[in-house]
Specification:
The chain is an alpha/beta fold and 322 residues long. It has two domains: 232 residues, TIM Barrel; 59 residues, no CATH class. Helix content is 41%, strand content 15%. Helix 1 links the parallel strand 1 and strand 2. Helix 2 runs parallel beside helix 3. The model has no long low-confidence stretch (mean pLDDT 97).
């Protein structure tokens, strides 16, 4: 099989630490935690719990949303997890499309992301930065935190030429399209079939559905009625959503259950989802992963979903044995 790291991505919630323990037992390289305050519990709290219960597996954020925390709070949180995990932590930042839209806001601009990212890096290095018009620095005394500089790989999740250029200048790696100079990870959903199982089975659709319906969510949030109506089942999905809330509150429903649960209107889309990509026997899925690696991805972040995430983690780990 092609040389790549197989990691997993999970939402912060009651099962997170136990699932990271399982992922470590199964040989996953890293466990990445999602970060969205409107959707899930606090990612740093769950990273700390997982760090205490594991010894080998790497930990990462996919991805931190800058506008959810002040620059200083973010730097302190990163420093905390870096210490508790014994240097196993990697922090990746994004502009917060889903998280921001779920609150009726626009994602931050690339320039704002660059400023925030640079300030966090300087704080972790022990430098003084200007925050809210005043000089600021991490003042943690010896024994309260690791001494600066605190060495944590800082990644970016960015798209397009401007994002790629920014990452090339300031980041240690990227979640996104293959980068010309930086190690790159991609997020992928899928499921390994049981012997004799049909890829169109109800189990398969329930397992991969929470991720595979996201295309309808993003079409509606980014392009409105015209964009989502152009997708199979999109018009019926949109009308079901719009019947539940006035225009100014529909952002509260668009990403309901995002990548973890299926509201009834999303379940109606299951007949339209892709049941071919990264769905198959272990050998078939392994070949598809190798194809991703051949295009330039150094790490593949498998994002299990559905009613039995532990089953999905175990089954997907088997592709490494092929």
């Amino acid at each position: 099989m092609a040389n790549f790291e197989l990691s997993c991505g999970l939402p912060p919630g009651p099962d997170f630490a136990a699932l990271v323990e399982l992922a470590e037992e199964l040989g996953y390289t890293r466990a990445w935690v999602f970060d969205s305050a409107p959707l899930w519990e606090d990612s740093f709290v769950h990273l700390a719990l997982a760090a205490e219960r594991t010894t080998r597996i790497g930990l990462g954020t996919a991805v931190l949303i800058p506008q959810q925390r002040s620059v200083m709070a973010m730097a302190s949180g990163i420093a905390t997890i870096a210490r508790i995990s014994g240097g196993r932590f990697r922090a990746c930042f994004g502009t917060g499309f889903t998280s921001r839209f779920a609150m009726g806001q626009s994602p931050m601009t690339i320039n704002a992301l660059a400023d925030y990212f640079g300030a966090v890096r300087k704080l972790l290095a022990g430098q003084t930065v200007i925050l809210d018009g005043k000089p600021a620095r991490m003042l943690h005394a010896d024994g309260i935190s690791e001494p600066r500089p605190i060495e944590v790989p800082l990644w970016l999740s960015v798209l397009g030429p401007r994002g790629a250029a920014l990452a090339g200048d300031v980041a240690d790696g990227v979640i996104g399209p293959p980068h010309a100079t930086l190690p790159t990870a991609t997020i992928a959903s899928g499921t390994v079939l049981d012997p004799g199982e049909d890829r169109g089975s109800d189990r398969v659709r329930e397992a991969i559905g929470p991720w595979r319906v996201v295309g309808w969510h993003t079409a509606y949030s980014g392009g409105g009625a015209e964009a989502v109506d152009a997708k199979p089942g999109g018009q019926a999905w949109r009308k079901a959503l719009e019947a539940l809330a006035p225009e100014g509150e529909r952002h509260l429903l668009t990403f309901e259950g995002h990548v973890t649960h299926l509201p009834d209107r999303d379940r109606e889309l299951l007949e339209h989802i892709d049941v071919n990509t990264l769905v198959g026997g272990a050998a078939d899925v392994g070949r598809q992963l190798a194809g991703l690696a051949d295009t330039g991805f150094h790490e593949i972040i498998y994002t299990p979903s559905g009613p039995d995430v532990a089953r999905e983690l175990r089954a997907f780990a088997s592709v490494r044995e092929q």
